[in-house]
Structures are given as C-alpha cells and as structure tokens.
Design a protein that fits this description.
The protein is an alpha+beta fold and 446 residues long. The protein has 16 helices and 18 strands. The radius of gyration is 23 Å and the shape is globular. It comes from Wallemia ichthyophaga (strain EXF-994 / CBS 113033).
Length: 446
C-alpha cells in the first residue's frame, strides 16, 4: 500500500498483564484518560505541512460486500465512523473499498464520544465548529466533534486549509487502524506487534508505526495497544477482515515523551536522561531530520534505581557523577535499531549462534550507545506451552527476562527492566581509562 504520512502521536504504551506495577494499570479508564489527555498537543504539530496523504487508488470498481459496504450495513455499530469519512474524507472511503487483503480495526459508535455543541451554525458563524479550537482536543473528542457537525457544515464553503487539515487528520486515523494483510483473530495472536500502514519520515527504516497485540485471558479478550479491546472479531468482507474496537487507536508519542507519561514508573530514568543531555537524542522531530528514528530503550523502572545503595544513587545525581551516570545510561540504549520479538528495524544487530536458534528463539547481539565493547545480548522468544496452543512471547536481556517486552513508541521499542544493566568498565571515548576503571571500582565497592 502506497501510503505515508508524518504524525506526532499522543499516547504511550503500557502493559496490563505482565510485571509492571499495578498502580498504573489497575483501571482501564484511568489508563485511557492518560492516552486521551496526552493526545491534545499533537494535532497542532501534526497538522502542519509534513507528510503525504492517501494516494488516489487505481481502480474504482466496487465489489459486492466489500469492507465499506459491510460498515455501512451496520449503522448501529459503525455509523459515526462512516459518517465522518463520508463528510470529510472520500479518499479514505476509496481506500477501504478498493484495497485488497487487509485488516481494518474500526472504532464502534461507543468508542467515539458524543459531543453537544453550544452554538448555532449560521452564515455569520460558519466556522463555529471548523476552527483551530477543534484541534486542541484529544483524538477521540475530535472525532466526536466531527460527527456532531457532519450534517451542519457545508464543506464547499470551507477554506482549502481547513479541508486539507481534515483530510490529513482522518486519513492518518484510518491508516493507523489498517494493517496490510488479512489477520483473523487467531492469526493476530501469532504476533507481539504488527505493522500498520501509517509511516513517518525516517522512522523504523521505512516501516510503518506498530500496534501491540495482547491476549487477555480473564476475562477473555484481545487487546490492542493495551487499552482498546476487540469487541466484535472476524467481520468478513470481500477484501478485508474487520475487527470492531471499543476505543479509538491513538498513535504513540516519541520515545522520550512516552517515558514522561509514566512518571511514576520511569521518573528517575527520565531525570537521569535529562541530567546528562540524552533526552533530546531519544526524541524525534516531526520532519524526522533531528533525533533518532529507530531505537531500542532498555528502560529501568524506578525500582531498579532504588535497588542501588543510597550513596551510589546520590553520587550518580551529584555534579561529580554525571560522567558515570551517562556511561550507565548509554549502556541501556541501542541506537539505529528498534528490536521487537517479531521485528527489527535495522541491520546493526547480529545473530549469535546457539543450540536454541530456530524460528521461535533468536539470539542477537546489538551495540549500545556506549562505545568500545558496549554490546548487549537479546533472546527473542516466541513459544507455545502446548502444541497448536496460543503463542507466548518473552525477551531476555543479558540472560534475564525483561519485566515487560515490546513496548511501542513513535521511534523506539521498549524493553522494561527491574534491574540496571552493569556496563563494562572501559570507555575510550576521550576519557582516561584508568580514571574510568577507578570510578566504577569505587561505585561497585559501595
């Protein structure tokens, strides 16, 4: 599918079923509020001139019972979504009608919030709804406003910039809900993450933004991006598989912003990154020209830092400890490669021969930001506890299972750690080797 677009996203990835502390994830509604609240800022940035929109698709012949026909045939479930597309983005409809063999996640009517406007729409106030204020809301709320105004706005009277913004926004939403292969519910469970057709400049080596797939057992559910549950699965059409969602999917933010959202879990890590000047290097500009477009961040929880003796933690954050702290942090970051269980964006990671190497167990080494021997080793594991049963996924780093694997962000993969990684002592980057060795020997003796 020939689709690409620039987008600053508005959410952060977090897990509900693994080992992260319950405090963040105990209430789905609270988690969704975090996603929604942090989406308010990205629209004004995203709706600039970066990126492209959906190309005109070749061929206009309609197929009986194609994906669009199926959605239109179920107004009780999908009327908000179809009304928004009909009014504001006909090219997105062409995409749903004409593309072949794809998967479409569609937010139901309940997923798009109702909006009651306060102003009448008349000739003197024709922009009462289509003005800059609409983009200050979270993504689901914007969709709710668009639905509420669909029968009140005359698009022929709106200016070209307004039309461009609406078209670009809606097409971005549709692209992040689209996967370029047919995946029924059982096949979805074969993946830890899947690629959408929403692409950003200079990210993931040209691959699309990703969705994280999670199988919840109690109660049974398939969850996308940790908060959107598939409410109706395997809706068949001639050209696509459709899965209905109870929440709108919001693309994730850049790596550093994703960490900032979960301050309760990563505030020490983010403070450390800011202290040594690494935070900007983990970010990515909208045009993709500054920052790093593909990273793996082995992110230590606050509890990992709190395992350190108080005087060691105090030293790291003292004026004298900045060099050692940067040394430590660089060992937790793999540049130029986003490493997930079932996807790698770069070629820098190298396979390591192992008796366990097969389709479901890949062992690789990757260079960190720490120069001169700063490598880490990953075991990427996809396994079945029983033959033909569901797959489970695991990532081991330096031989230990991570606390939570395959977190997504706009430009990075996250592997979350409960313990800090101990970097090698040597750093030949313009620093006296003896001083570094003495410094780390002192720290390790505390």
């Amino acid at each position: 599918m020939k689709l690409s677009i620039a987008i600053l996203s508005a959410a952060a990835s977090a897990a509900t079923a693994l080992h992260l502390p319950v405090s963040i994830f105990s209430e789905e509604a609270a988690l969704q509020r975090q996603f929604v609240d942090t989406s308010k800022g990205w629209l004004n940035e995203f709706l600039g001139n970066n990126g492209e929109t959906i190309d005109n698709l070749a061929g206009s012949s309609e197929v009986t019972d194609n994906a669009w026909d199926i959605l239109k045939g179920d107004p009780k479930k999908f009327s908000k979504f179809t009304t928004i597309l009909e009014k504001f983005s006909p090219t997105a409809i062409d995409h749903i009608k004409d593309e072949k063999d794809f998967t479409l996640f569609v937010p139901t009517n309940d997923a798009i919030p109702d909006h009651k406007h306060k102003h009448k729409h008349n000739d003197d106030d024709k922009n009462a709804y289509l003005n800059a204020d609409i983009w200050e809301d979270p993504v689901p709320s914007v969709l709710g406003k668009l639905y509420a105004m669909a029968d009140k706005v005359d698009m022929t009277q709106e200016d070209d910039e307004c039309k461009r913004r609406l078209k670009k926004f809606i097409e971005a939403v549709v692209m992040y809900h689209t996967v370029a292969q047919k995946l029924d519910i059982n096949t979805l469970h074969d993946f830890s993450t899947i690629e959408t057709i929403l692409k950003e400049p200079n990210t993931f080596n040209g691959a699309g933004q990703r969705l994280r797939v999670e199988q919840q057992y109690v109660p049974p559910a398939t969850v996308i991006n940790h908060y959107a549950k598939i409410s109706t699965q395997n809706i068949q059409s001639a050209n696509a598989v459709i899965h209905a969602l109870d929440h709108v999917l919001i693309p994730p933010p850049s790596a550093i912003n994703a960490l900032f959202i979960f301050a309760r879990e990563f505030s020490i890590f983010t403070s450390a990154l800011q202290k040594v000047g690494l935070a900007e290097e983990l970010d990515l500009s909208l045009d993709g020209k500054t920052g790093n477009g593909q990273l793996t961040i082995n992110a230590p929880l606050n509890s990992a830092f709190e395992r350190l003796p108080p005087k060691v933690l105090g030293f790291f954050f003292s004026p004298m400890g900045s060099r050692a702290l940067r040394h430590l942090l660089e060992y937790h970051i793999v540049p130029n490669n986003a490493i997930f269980v079932d996807f790698q964006s770069g070629e820098q990671a190298k396979s390591v021969k192992s008796d366990n190497d097969d389709l479901f167990h890949k062992k690789i080494k990757a260079s960190t930001m720490l120069e001169d021997g700063g490598e880490v080793e990953y075991d990427l594991i996809k396994s079945q506890t029983v033959p033909y049963g569901p797959y489970t996924f695991d990532v081991k780093l330096q031989g230990k299972s991570v606390s939570w694997h395959d977190g997504i962000s706009r430009n990075a993969a996250f592997q979350v750690l409960e313990e800090l990684l101990m970097p090698p002592k040597h750093d030949h980057n313009g620093i006296n080797e003896a001083d570094v060795d003495d410094e780390w020997a002192w720290i390790q003796s505390l």
